[in-house]
């Protein structure tokens, strides 16, 4: 027995004081309503309604059940209605996840701009270098730099994140500027280890239109992007860095791009979210907002 269904039909009969009217409101036949009430009575072992051809009245047990159940069902209906309304509105919470560098340099400005348009929106931004299971973590939208997040997700590449070879002016003054790959390999360089696996990440070099992975001996390795940038800025060595993260350093002369012929455009900034039919309006609006070309066009201008 579907208790929720038969109880709903019983309450409908009491409110309408008619099996026929309750059937019309529920979109079923009067026979189905009558059967549902009989099933409920049999399950409870009590009579709930006195029925005659002209009159319908509650028994004491029926009145008690109606008194207890009707407010609860009305609250449930109201809760469902509120969820439907919230789905169509621009107010509410949007949960995001991203690596710390992307959160700081990309998402915080976009979140601020979005709230200027929709002040009823709130954000929960969780920063992690780990790939996040959106469904398990109840995240609406994820962001990551690298390659496409893969299957079972909607993934949109927002822009390229070129990787460039850079050094501090002080380092170049002391050691000179390499002009070829062979010369580069003779210099002190920094390296990056993946936070999850601890594996060294080879440099990605664009050579004659191809992507070449080059292992570079490192005088220091890091598992945090910002720390590696700080090391290169301090003159510890030459590093291959994400150009969008060092825009300000390049503009201020704290870092100098070198060997630009080896810049790599393999890495991209991706926005991803689950395959879902009913995406809340507020989430869909933020997805479209971020995806606008004008919103991300400046990320890679170095």
Automatic annotation (TrEMBL):
Any one Pfam family match given in the protein's UniProt record, by short name: HTH_1
Instruction: List the InterPro entries hit by this protein, alphabetically.
Output: LysR-type_TF_proteobact-type, LysR_HTH_N, LysR_subst-bd, WH-like_DNA-bd_sf, WH_DNA-bd_sf
Q: Where is the HTH lysR-type domain?
A: 1-59
GO terms for MF: DNA binding; DNA-binding transcription factor activity
Keyword Ion transport present in the record's keywords: the answer is: no
DNA-binding as a keyword of this entry, yes or no, is yes
Organism's domain of life? Answer: Bacteria
What the record says about family reads: Belongs to the LysR transcriptional regulatory family.
Record-linked Gene3D superfamilies: 3.40.190.290, Winged helix-like DNA-binding domain superfamily/Winged helix DNA-binding domain (1.10.10.10)
Keywords, A to Z? DNA-binding, Transcription, Transcription regulation
User: What is the name of the protein in this document?
Assistant: Transcriptional regulator
């Amino acid at each position: 027995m579907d208790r929720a269904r038969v109880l709903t039909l019983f309450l409908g009969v009491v409110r309408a004081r008619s099996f026929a009217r309750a059937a019309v409101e529920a979109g079923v036949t009067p026979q189905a309503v009558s059967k549902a009430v009989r099933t409920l009575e049999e399950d409870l072992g009590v009579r709930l309604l006195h029925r005659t051809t002209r009159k319908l009245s509650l028994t004491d047990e029926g009145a008690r059940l109606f008194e207890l159940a009707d407010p609860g069902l009305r609250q449930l209906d109201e809760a469902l209605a509120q969820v439907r309304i919230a789905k169509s509105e621009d107010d509410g919470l949007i949960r995001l996840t991203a690596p710390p560098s992307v959160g700081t340099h990309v998402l915080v400005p976009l979140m601020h701009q979005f709230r200027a348009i929709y002040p009823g929106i709130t954000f929960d931004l969780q920063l992690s270098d780990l790939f996040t299971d959106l469904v398990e973590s109840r995240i609406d939208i994820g962001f990551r730099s690298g390659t496409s997040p893969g299957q079972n997700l909607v993934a949109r590449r927002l822009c390229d994140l070129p990787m460039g070879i850079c050094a501090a002016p002080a380092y170049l003054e002391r050691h000179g500027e390499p002009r070829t790959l062979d010369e580069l390999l003779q210099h002190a360089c920094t390296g990056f280890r993946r936070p999850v696996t601890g594996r060294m990440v080879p440099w990605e070099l664009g050579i004659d239109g191809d992507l070449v992975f080059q292992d570079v001996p490192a005088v220091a390795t890091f598992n945090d992007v910002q720390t590696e940038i700080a090391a290169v800025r301090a003159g510890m060595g030459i590093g291959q860095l994400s150009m969008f993260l060092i825009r300000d350093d390049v503009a201020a002369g704290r870092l100098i791009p070198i060997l630009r012929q080896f810049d790599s455009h393999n890495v991209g900034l991706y926005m991803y979210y689950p395959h879902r039919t009913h995406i809340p309006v507020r989430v869909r609006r933020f997805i479209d907002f971020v995806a606008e070309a004008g919103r991300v066009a400046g990320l890679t201008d170095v």
